[in-house]
TrEMBL record:
Listed name of the protein: AsmA domain-containing protein
Keywords for the protein's UniProt record, in alphabetical order: Membrane, Transmembrane, Transmembrane helix
Organism of derivation: Polaromonas vacuolata
Classification of source organism: Bacteria, Pseudomonadati, Pseudomonadota, Betaproteobacteria, Burkholderiales
Cross-referenced InterPro entries: AsmA, AsmA-related
Biased composition annotated in UniProt, kind: Polar residues: 341-352, 361-370
GO biological process: regulation of protein targeting to membrane
Length: 661
């Protein structure tokens, strides 16, 4: 038989344990049944003294004890510091919050859950770091800011003022009466953000997650309207305090992408009106806009961009492309005013005015254009180049509506580092060839300093001047180099101060003969052209070289050599005042009658150049013809017979001039 022996505790130990349990039970019952309302007034006085401003539980206080402390307040008023615009930090009909005991004993206030009924919330932050929600007499003490987890608002008002960010926002919250709504909290806001006026409406989940990530993402919708921008977004976020875990689809449209700098801090180029959509995600300090698709002006745009704020200077990176770029959409980027189209007359309307004399119209237009500037004069916003760094690649597969410029395609790698902008490489498909090189703009100097170098390869003559029908049958390719450096804050001032050189060479090919004959005023050949049509002549060589100093381009080589004609020239182009003076001397190689071989002048402004022959030289030839004609009309033709003394130009010298770059 097995016998069990039980430990027999000493009587004193049993009495001690029973006493301890009884005391614990008394303490628990006391805490559970404690009339917490009696502490309301002492607590109001103590909190007001510690905060240096009014703190008051106006009606009732209760506390529930457990693994965490739950405090319920019937009526709550917490005043703002005297410097704040809004008198109340919080004024609520009722409040309930969960409080962690251990952080509280260490002097930190952690509130995993806060419920406010009909609150008025006034948040304000000063440029010196003071903030109304720092619960201390020293409102610049960041450690005095309570850590709030989930915030639930049934209905209420909120104001937010931040002088450093140019923010002054008023928001109103309310719960939808719909049962089981996925987005029960409705809100609307208006005011200023970065000193830009806006209005916003939207919906969200009923619990605002402020300082910890939810296992289930918090849903939200928002519609924002500013003076020139509209934004719609729908998605979710894990943490509203810093928007971490944000994933939303967006649609945005506006007047100019550059205007988003005020709202987002992202430096974007000036553009025409845009309409884009995509997906926006935030992971840590990185914002990523992917699946971008839409229009800039008439040009399509797609790709992705990332904006990283983890470094001392924010950085934008990404890749963008356009299948078809409308060239007119580039005007704002380079500082040109957007093209303006005049409305046409209403269909069916009757014009009772007499048609003006065309010659008078041309004279009037020339006078009007003579004072007009051609080079872009709109100041480039160079200060923004210092606001962030960038590494973005853009590619345009095709370019349309080029008009005077025969651009086919383009690609550029944009690098922005500490205020220095580099376009390297910058490659443009031009007239079936390639214009490639680099450009650097240093915005750290005043005015900004630029440096550029381009190589010209294989530009086709028959596509180089798309507005001139007479060049369509020409054959040949242009090769050369362009190097310029200068300073300025507009494209016009940069070119007006530039120094460097330019050299272009065309090898063997064919040219439209009518061009050469009109330049030489070769009446015989023009008559033949009018009777039998145009024909091409063999191009032996052509070379152009300019030295550039302080915006003044001075020709060192101007030569075009064909089997029919040798044309040489000289002159200058002033990029500072947009004027030019060029003289071309044609020397026909074939014997031709009716030739009034005289220098051809091109002079005037870029906007309204004038083209004509040297009147003195031409008058001499005409005078000789008239004098001989008085003796014998047949002898008048003799004065116009061209014996063709022109010689073949040495193309090697022109090639050497082009290769010295």
């Amino acid at each position: 038989m097995i016998k069990f022996r039980f430990f027999k505790a000493p009587r004193w130990l049993i009495v001690s344990l029973l006493s301890a349990l009884s005391l614990l039970l008394v303490v628990v019952l006391t805490l559970l049944l404690f009339p917490w309302d009696r502490l309301r007034e002492p607590l109001n006085r103590y909190a007001s003294e510690q905060l240096g401003r009014r703190f008051e539980i106006t009606r009732h206080l209760s506390v529930d004890l457990g693994r965490s402390i739950t405090v319920k307040l019937d009526g709550l008023v917490v005043a703002n510091p005297e410097w704040a615009k809004n008198p109340y930090l919080i004024k609520a009909e009722s409040a309930e919050f969960e409080m962690r005991l251990w952080p509280l004993l260490q002097g930190r206030l952690e509130l995993p859950r806060v419920l406010l009924t009909q609150p008025e919330i006034g948040l304000q932050m000063q440029a010196d770091g003071r903030r109304t929600w720092a619960l201390s007499s020293d409102t610049s003490d960041v450690s005095a800011v309570p850590k709030v987890g989930a915030l639930t608002i049934s209905q209420g008002l909120l104001t937010y003022i931040d002088s450093a960010k140019g923010a002054d926002i008023s928001a109103e919250f309310s719960l939808t009466p719909e049962d089981n709504a996925l987005l029960p909290l409705l809100y609307k806001a208006d005011g200023k953000w970065h000193n830009q006026r806006f209005k916003a409406t939207g919906r969200s989940g009923g619990v605002l997650q402020l300082s910890r990530n939810l296992q289930q993402p918090f849903p939200l919708e928002i519609n924002v309207i500013t003076a020139n921008t509209r934004l719609k977004a729908k998605g979710s976020v894990a943490n509203l305090a810093d928007f971490s875990g944000l994933m939303t689809y967006f649609e945005i449209e506006g007047r100019n992408l550059a205007e988003l700098y005020q709202l987002s801090g992202v430096v974007l180029p000036s553009t025409p009106a845009y309409k884009l959509k995509g997906q926006l995600v935030r992971q840590g300090n990185r914002w990523t806009a992917s699946q971008i698709d839409g229009l800039l002006g008439s040009s399509d745009l797609s790709g992705s961009l990332s904006f990283d704020t983890s470094g001392s200077v924010a950085r934008l990176s990404g890749k963008l492309q356009s299948k078809l770029l409308d060239f007119s959409d580039l005007a704002p980027v380079v500082g040109l005013a957007p093209s303006k189209t005049k409305p046409s007359a209403t269909k069916g309307s009757v014009n009772t005015r007499a048609a003006p004399d065309r010659s008078q119209v041309r004279v009037s237009q020339t006078k009007q254009n003579s004072g007009r500037r051609v080079l872009p004069t709109i100041p480039l916003d160079l200060e923004r180049l210092k606001a962030m760094n960038a590494d973005v690649t853009y590619n345009a597969v095709a370019i349309r509506h080029v008009k005077q410029l025969p651009l086919d395609s383009g690609t550029v790698h944009v690098q922005l580092t500490d205020g220095v902008l580099q376009l390297d490489p910058l490659a443009l498909g031009v007239a079936g060839g390639l214009l490639s090189g680099r450009m650097t703009i240093d915005a750290n100097q005043t005015p900004a300093v630029f440096d550029t170098h381009f190589d010209v390869r294989g530009l086709k003559l028959n596509r180089l001047f798309p507005t001139l029908q007479s060049t369509k049958s020409s054959l040949g390719k242009v090769t050369g180099q362009i190097s310029l450096a200068g300073k300025g804050n507009t494209a016009a001032s940069m070119l007006g101060s530039a120094s460097g050189n330019l050299a272009l060479v065309v090898g063997r090919g064919e040219l439209s003969n009518i061009l050469l004959e009109f330049i030489g005023l070769d009446g015989g050949e023009v008559i033949k052209f009018l009777l039998r049509g145009d024909r091409n002549v063999m191009l032996r060589c052509a070379a152009v070289e300019f030295s550039v100093k302080q915006g003044l381009m001075t020709s060192t080589t101007l030569m075009l050599d064909t089997t029919d004609t040798l044309i040489t020239g000289r002159g200058s182009v002033n990029l500072a005042n947009e004027s030019l003076y060029m003289v071309f001397n044609p020397e026909p190689k074939d014997g031709s009658i009716l030739s009034l071989r005289s220098p051809l002048k091109i002079a005037g402004s870029f906007a309204a150049p004038t083209v004509g022959v040297d009147k003195l030289a031409l008058a001499g030839r005409i005078g000789l013809a008239i004098g001989l004609g008085l003796i014998n009309p047949l002898l008048a033709l003799a004065a116009t017979v061209e014996t063709g003394p022109g010689q073949d130009a040495d193309c090697r010298q022109a090639l050497k001039a082009a290769s010295r770059q």
